[in-house]
Amino acid sequence: MQTVQDAAALRAAIRGWRAKGQTVGFVPTLGNLHAGHQSLIKLARARTERVVASVFVNPTQFGPNEDFERYPRTLVQDQAALADEDCDLLFAPDVATIYPFGAEHSVSLRVPQITDTLEGAHRPGHFDGVATVVCKLFNLVQPDLAVFGQKDFQQLKVIERMVRDLSLPVKVMAAPTLRAEDGLALSSRNQYLSAAERARAPLIHDTLLKMRELLDQGHPWQALEQTAAARLTRAGFIPDYVVIRRAEDLAEPAEGERGGLIALIAARLGSTRLIDNLLFD
Ligand code: PAF
């Protein structure tokens, strides 16, 4: 597997593949790769002839009090994990390659409406940073297919909208969330958890399952949100949101609406913020 840092080398490699008529799949990441990321590479690998991954800790999607500085940078291990999945090329740019005028003077994309709620409400500017960097990476890689994890469900929706609204010629594919045996969704941030917190963290997934069970039994979604939030609070979590929404647009469901719903949770456990979701279909 080739690793390139600059845009010209990336474009040259991709030009070579395109000249042979090969298709290109793309998996953008923040690095510190785990089995969840590897499953995204596998999905791309099965669908396109060439696979590119990027590792870039994007400064514009982190808020001032978030973990940009302490986000684990593990490029050597990431290279090995990608090579194991038969990834063809790792693009690992520096900040100046992605933001030639500096991150604070960059063109910034805003995907309206769907970013006003949930993560967007709790992390102001986060999705502007995500949409901006993903659009820049798409412009550089020009993939046929890009794979994103369903764990960041709202991010997936934001990217789908951006791609459609800007008529970008890339197919966005959603990959199922990979979980530890006890149900905790795999995330690079899980390593911030202490042993005691790690033992409690699967309660988030358990709560999502409980919400689904109670909704199936006919309980109204509004009551479920409150019961679930209270359950997490009792166990020492500080929930940012515990909601049931329409999966399509993340709007509140109508009274009695049952189909196409998703439960989403974001909660703090100690100094770690965890997110997860469960589609109810
Ligand atoms: O989900 C992530 O890892 C990041 O938000 C992404 C899509 C790579 C953009 O920086």
UniProtKB/TrEMBL annotation:
Localization per Swiss-Prot or TrEMBL: Cytoplasm
Pathway stated in the Swiss-Prot or TrEMBL entry: Cofactor biosynthesis; (R)-pantothenate biosynthesis; (R)-pantothenate from (R)-pantoate and beta-alanine: step 1/1
Annotated ATP binding sites: G149, Q150, K151, D152, L178, L186, S187, S188, R189
Superkingdom field: Bacteria
Gene Ontology biological-process entries: pantothenate biosynthetic process
Binding site for beta-alanine: Q61
Class of this enzyme: ligase
Record key words, sorted: ATP-binding, Cytoplasm, Ligase, Nucleotide-binding, Pantothenate biosynthesis
Entry similarity comment: Belongs to the pantothenate synthetase family.
Chain's role: Catalyzes the condensation of pantoate with beta-alanine in an ATP-dependent reaction via a pantoyl-adenylate intermediate.
Assembly notes: Homodimer.
More about this protein: The reaction proceeds by a bi uni uni bi ping pong mechanism.
UniProt name for this protein: Pantothenate synthetase
Naturally occurring in which organism (per UniProt): Rhodanobacter glycinis
